[in-house]
Input
Amino acid sequence: NELEIAGLRGRGGAGFPTHFKWAAAAAEESDVKYVVANADEGDAGTFIDRMIIEGDPHALIEGMAICGVAIGARYGKVYLRSEYPNAELILETALQDARDEGILGDHFDISIALGAGSYVCGEETALLESLEGRRGEVRARPPYPTQSGLYGKPTIVNNVLTFALVSAILREGGELYGSLGTERSKGTVVAQIVGAVKEPVCVEIPFGGTVAEMFRKHSDLEGVVAVQAGGPLGGVFAVEELDSVELSFEGLSESGGLLGHGGFVCYDSEFDPREESIGWMKFFRDESCGKCTPCRIGTQRALELLRRIGTENEKIGDRQLLDDLDDVMSSTSLCALGGLAMMPIRSTMKKWPASFGGMNGE
Output
């Protein structure tokens, strides 16, 4: 009830209302349930999960313990990115401290599992496959993890930041947290601003205002020509657009972007839209789990088209073919990797057409 009053939405990228997910798992009848923290922070420019684990690991532990009580789970697991060795050491020490104090124990305990470097394991069902010792491939849904998750048991998978916010909400009250932000995006956003700025910034502020206002107050836009919000799958904005983009889930989405995990990567005058687009698609091709055809084949075909478009090798119909591929991938892929892979390409080609050898996509 407190989470519903707070209006908390998952901070891992999808923005799904947390109370819906928890209520679904709580309603399931099972002698075994799991609470899983997704600490496989793979989006470019994001580091808040690492900062929380290294700086305040008990915020994560407390949030997971609260979830355990709420849904009736006895087992917790943290799926931690293997590139975070310091976070692993700090978290293991904090877990042992919590056991010594009786906060963790037979009633509810947490263990750490290390990821193996797969970007797609940031998706909750691929993460569960990896936890079970299999190749990290996305599962078809339904059933959802709240019904049949880890080892077929009801499971909550939330991001580290989400669990940390749960701790704050239960401490301060859902009404106070829900009073912050906007009507549809309640609470706070943790923005991580990196790239072509004087120094990286990580700031927690209420939702609302514009993205440009956030930059002016907490960072700077001097020399910045473009900003990608929401990780590699997010849309790309020309810097002059940011004054009209609301800092919220809906504001970024309605502007053709994505809040994602709160990363804002800035580019300076050396930004090459075409080369960046090819780089993004190559990354998606390499990181596709291969489970579904639209993503497995689509990312490769899109990469081939992007390498031709804007060169003397471009063929008549290539741009239309890319649009058709965008439609197929966006509407039929099993997860967000394939479903959103064309978002940064779409926005970049629209806003910097000259870089692709045409005007307005012609």
Summary: The two ends are 52 Å apart (CA to CA).
